Amino acid sequence: MNTHSEAARAVTQSVRTGEAPAGKIAASHLADDVVLKQGSTETKGKDAVVKLVTGIWPNTAVYTQGFWSAPTSENGSTVVTADFPPLGAAPKSAKLTFGFNPQDKINHITMEITPQAPPTPTDKIPDVVRGLINNALANGTPMSVAYVNEQNQPVLSLRGSIQVYGDLQLCAWIRSTEGGLAKSLEKNPAIAILYRDQKTRSTVLVQGRGHFDPDPSVRQLVFDIVPEVERNHDPLMEKGGALIIDVDRIQGGTVAGPVRVQRPA
Q1: In sequence order, what are the beta bridge partners of 214?
Q2: What is the distance between the alpha carbons of residues 91 and 104, in angstroms, rounded to a whole number?
Q3: I need a labelling partner for 257 at 20 to 30 A (CA). Which of 126, 159, 186, 197 fits?
């Protein structure tokens, strides 16, 4: 491996892992007046650049899972590229371009990040979101539900029984129709739901309106849909109720890329 390739490899390893030892090795290949450019932002000086190419940054968890190329020559510069698997809001790809001074020290780095393509809006819940929501409890990622209580105070709770009910509907079996959620939705049906899986950096945000459906057939269907562990809290369906959530909007990032759902006007 030639000097330029070795220097590019060292800096790339520091960016990719964030590890302090890798950062020290990368620093040894940088000129004192090195400039790192990313978009319209320029960072100048060895110490400042070392801080940016070392440590745990928001995208480091993505960089560690990227498919990084070996250093190659391109138009007189040394280049390293990376593609990333679908990881929530992760970028699609990255490119590092290195320039060198006469002493073979890196004096210029350009970092280009290509984001994922924006989602195509749909008017139904995509299959990837359906899978995330339906498997949330089994996946160890119960969903957080937010609503406004009768005292107009925001409330958060974890719900393990939320499932997809229709193209633009979710459902859940709520153990008590006399509890705070049921009473609050009578006054203010607005409800928000958050799904987050840190392992895959998947985030799904749902906004909608909730109501309890007393129809016996709906109650039975919702009860049959939810996970067994939730049914076992109310096996005779005596205290609980069928919550139906009419979805107005979904947005977020998933393992299949970004998503956006909007109820037709």
Answers
A1: none
A2: 31
A3: 159
Write the single-letter amino acid at 162: I
Rounded Cα distance between 226 and 165, Å, is 10
Residue with tokens 């939320």: 162
Per residue in 5-43, pLDDT (tens digit) is: 999 999 999 999 999 999 999 999 999 999 999 999 999
The CATH homologous superfamily to which domain 127-262 belongs is Electron Transport, Fmn-binding Protein; Chain A (2.30.110.10)
Q: Is the distance from CB of 48 to CB of 124 less than 8 angstroms?
A: no
Kindly give, in sequence order, each residue whose CB lies less than 8 Å from that of residue 110, ignoring residues fewer than 6 positions away.
36, 37, 38, 95, 96, 97
Q: What is the pTM of this model?
A: 0.74
Q: Model confidence over 74-119: pLDDT tens digits?
A: 999 999 999 998 777 788 899 999 999 999 999 999 999 998 888 8
The alpha carbon of residue 180 and the mean position of all alpha carbons in its chain are separated, in whole angstroms, by 30
Task: Name the architecture of domain 3-114.
Answer: Roll (3.10)
Distance CA 33, CA 18 (A): 22
What residues contact residue 32 under an 8 Å CB cut-off, 6+ apart? 45, 46
The answer to whether the CB of 176 falls within 8 A of the CB of 238 is no
